Amino acid sequence: MAGGIKKFVVGAFDDEKVLFPAVKNVRKAGYKIHDVYTPFPVHGLDHAMGLRETSLHTAGFFYAITGTCTALGFMTWIFTKDWPINVGGKPFFALPAWIPITFELTVLFSAVGMVLTFCYLCQLAPFVKKHHFHPRATDDLFIMAIECTDKTNPDEVQSFLKNAGAMEINVQEAETGWWLGRYDREQKLYKDEKGY
Amino acid sequence: MNHQFELPGSYKKWTYGLLAVGLIAVIYGFIMYHPFADPHHAHGDHKNSTRFWAVLLQNSVYFLLVVNAAMFFLCVTTMAMGGWQIAFRRVTEAISSAVPIMGLVTLVILMTIVWGGRTDIYHWLDKEHVAHDHILKGKAGFLNPVFYSVFSVVTVVLWWLLGKKMRSMSLKHDEGETSHERNKKFIWDNTVWASLFTVVFALSVASTLPWLWLMSIDAHWYSTMYSWYTFASTFVAGIALMALYVIYLKNKGQLEFVTEEHLHDLGKFMFAFSVFWTYLWFSQYMLIWYSNQPEETKYFVERIGTAEKAGPYKGIFFFNLIVNFLAPLLILMRRGSKRNWTLITFMAVLIIFGHWIDFYQMVMPGTLKDKAQLMPFEFGVPCLFIGLIMWATGGYLSKHSLTPRNNPFLKESMIHHT
Amino acid sequence: MTIFAVMCAGQFPIWHMGRVWMAFFVMPYPNTRGPLWVNFNSPLLWDVFAISTYFTVSLLFWYSGLIPDLATVRDRAKTKFRKMMYGVASFGWTGSTKHWQRHESLSLVLAGLSTPLVLSVHTIVSFDFATSVIPGWHTTIFPPYFVAGAIFSGFAMVQTLLIVVRKVMNLQDYITIGHIEAMNKVIVLTGSIVGCAYLTELFIAWYGQNPYEWYAFKENRANIFSPYGWSYWLMMFCNVVSPQLFWSRKLRRNIAVTFFMSIIVNIGMWYERFVIIVTSIYRDFLPSSWSNYYSPTIWEIGFYLGTFGLFFTCFFLFAKYMPVIAVAEIKSILKTSGENYKVKMTDIEKADPEKFYQEEVDHAHH
What we know:
The complex is a heterotrimer.
Chain A: E1 5-13, H1 16-28, E2 32-37, H2 45-48, H3 56-82, H4 95-122, E3 128-130, E4 142-147, H5 154-164, E5 168-175, E6 178-180, H6 183-186
Antiparallel strand pairs in A: 1-4, 1-5, 2-4, 3-6
Chain B: H1 9-32, H2 45-79, H3 89-96, H4 99-115, H5 127-131, H6 134-139, H7 145-174, H8 180-213, H9 226-251, H10 260-291, H11 294-304, H12 314-332, H13 335-338, H14 341-368, H15 376-399, H16 410-414
Helix pairs in contact in B: 1-15, 2-3, 2-4, 2-8, 2-9, 2-14, 2-15, 3-15, 4-7, 7-8, 8-9, 9-10, 9-14, 10-12, 10-14, 12-14
Chain C: H1 2-16, H2 43-75, H3 80-89, H4 97-130, H5 142-168, H6 177-207, H7 211-222, H8 229-241, H9 249-252, H10 255-281, H11 298-321, H12 327-333, H13 339-350, H14 353-365
Helix pairs in contact in C: 1-2, 1-11, 2-3, 2-4, 4-5, 5-6, 5-10, 6-8, 7-8, 8-10
């Protein structure tokens, strides 16, 4: 899925203490932060970047209710309408005996639904290839990518980032979407990256 | 910052008011319900005599176990090296300081029932009946007045002594300046005494006591789950009571260090143990329903009845599930609601009331059969016990600093973040 | 470990069917044998749902947690082949803040779902026994008691593997004695809960005054001279008595003792199931059908060893090719844990609480 090719100014930070004020200042200056790539979840960074809360868990709740209703509805239909069986003299509508399966399906629907939604929203799947702004983004650096619009002057952004404490700054043209690709072909090995 | 709480006049007014209402209810019952009438002829006016004792039994045991749950909470969090609860630790201590007075009242009631030969409450007390009931005869080694009394007294005394030790250690640590060594010793002593209390608790509330005090009302019936079920019921109510006090004091400008984070965790406890209670409820109910053996299903038949004939407690039985399961599950599931002071107050009251109803349906069917009522008397008597709890707790809160200032975990509690 | 163990566990019902080629009969669809459905009222079918759900959800939870770590491995891979394989496995993870935010939410909810799911799996296993009317099986405390037992033996099993992996892979800096001690605390706690349940069962068997129930407990189990009495007492000793050693801090922090105890607990919990199953049914209601002393056949031993093989093969493959430590999670707490953090704490510990509060909390809010 093509997201289009855009131009970015990329800055690498090595400390959260520098990153947070940098994010704040970059936003204040009116630049558009495309994304910040971090090796681990940095608490509060989403708020600092002005991202809205995810509603993934709300989706999970609705998947769960779907599971509950499916299980109860299905078993009720089967054992009271489709093919009632007398099991041990219990009523056809044997609710207590259905609670375990209802619970399992609730959890199953919720978990599977949430993971699929998560993968869809984040565009994650095997064989998916995306542009990586920095090879150390999953290792030990925080990588900030600022999108250049028509009005942005890349040189100005670069010096801004330098003042904000970025240790490595460059300009990259990158595809923002994903494509099917192979990491061994399109990405250099760690040891072949410059500076390692 | 002043950590000394002065009881406001309104608190005292409510305390004495509730005590008065409760006392009036008990005295009214004492005069009108013939509490010392011969239980063998428990009908007509004598049914009221059963009612008097059944209501006292339900309320005394319930509220005693609820306040004792506070000490259990304190001990397990101590053993788990928990830090977050220190900001309101004194509240927990204060609630647990009601155990001696509540224990005494409960013991007086229980002893009067047992030694007064209230066979309408515990029909295993009826010697003639037991002689030709081979099941009760077999149980006589456990269900007899002497064992009942000795075990009850020993347990309550142990709760009282161990709880007192826990509280006095905590108060003593407030005095003077502390040091690393002193803190270490404090934590060590605390852990040792907390584990002792927990062991006693496991041998009493989590096993023997509910069998003796409550399960033996339905003397033929048995369920291995019963004690854990009782524990879950009173523990969640105990947490709710703690939350209520925390919110009350916070409203009065006390407990400076308690924040939404602490409230959130109390809310999580209320949510989790409500679900746990339901889990135990379902396991007990479903297994008995499924295997369908008359000596076991009897318990539920007396309550909800059968497919042909609805039992007298059917409404209460399902109300119990709605209040104690559905409401906490749906309302407390959201993060926002666990951080909402008003909503937690409402839920805490609901949970305490819900489990009171749970105890009501545990005690009444075996004693009053289908003659149980929910009249002013039933709601008046709990006022006495709530008043007692408020009196003891308020006394402790106003006598001691609300913040254990030298507690080594206090700072951890201040910066607690869920 | 969970996943591999569930794989092992999941195959047993299939073997137990005898005719394994008919295993698909448990699937809930109106089938070719007439539009007849499976029996939703049967605990065995609940088990089918429970185990398959448990497997699926554990797998999702496990793999979704692995994705960021696999991406780290991908980006640091030393050969082209590894880069390709981990590239496929990491689903194109970039570390975007929005993705992390969703990932955190997902992990939280999956953990929240997995907790009651663990309870439900063991509960439903206990229902397999407890819904019946067999003496020694039908008891209401079974569900929470199986759950406590599962946590107990689960922690012991993790302890067994963890101590070996920690040594072999030099993870002493990540898995500290503190972690091992904390796990031992859980073991003594759950061991005592299980002990409480054993005694409750025994007591209520007497209290219930049901002659069959009491016979199963008194003669088939507690009587050490009965054919299987030894197994009951072995179980009691391994699960209830021996974990009490862990009240001692010194023993909790001793690796050799911990390893030894974890094996003892594993044996004990294996015997718990042995006691429940064998001692309850080798003598049934008809004394004439009381069976002989049971000893496993070569096939049974084969199945048993086979599960060990399957489990360890999977586990070793995992340990070799996948990150055994949650890399991203460790990174996120690096600055707030460990020795260098502890040094910083000394001043804070000495500080006056009131002052500390004003500086740390009030300040942070404004």
